[in-house]
Automatic annotation (TrEMBL):
Pfam families: BolA. It comes from Corallococcus coralloides (strain ATCC 25202 / DSM 2259 / NBRC 100086 / M2). This is BolA/YrbA family protein. The lineage of its organism: Bacteria, Pseudomonadati, Myxococcota, Myxococcia, Myxococcales. Belongs to the BolA/IbaG family. SUPFAM superfamilies: BolA-like (SSF82657). InterPro entries: BolA, BolA-like_sf, BolA/IbaG_stress_morph_reg.
């Protein structure tokens, strides 16, 4: 069973300087939602941003250990435009 912190560390290693927040949506360790804010997303489409997030998690996606990952991705500029949360 995966945990949010393991996935978070993998994403931070793959996307240095990012802010990553992960939640286990079902408590079963295979369904997560993530918010990732990364300078690596600057100038990239949403599809390209999502591909950058999925890439370091392929081992778990292919094995089915990670069954679902809902993503919200933003460049720092996109996040700033959304205003305070």
């Amino acid at each position: 069973m995966l945990d949010a912190e393991t996935l978070r560390r993998y994403l931070l290693d793959a996307l240095p300087g990012s802010e990553v927040e992960l939640n286990d949506t079902t408590g079963t360790g295979d369904h997560f939602e993530a918010r990732v804010i990364s300078p690596a997303f600057t100038g990239k489409s949403m599809v390209e941003q999502h591909q950058l997030v999925y890439a370091p998690l392929q081992q778990w996606l292919k094995s089915g250990e990670l069954h679902a990952l809902a993503l919200k991705t933003y460049s720092p500029e996109q996040w700033k435009k959304l205003g305070p949360r």
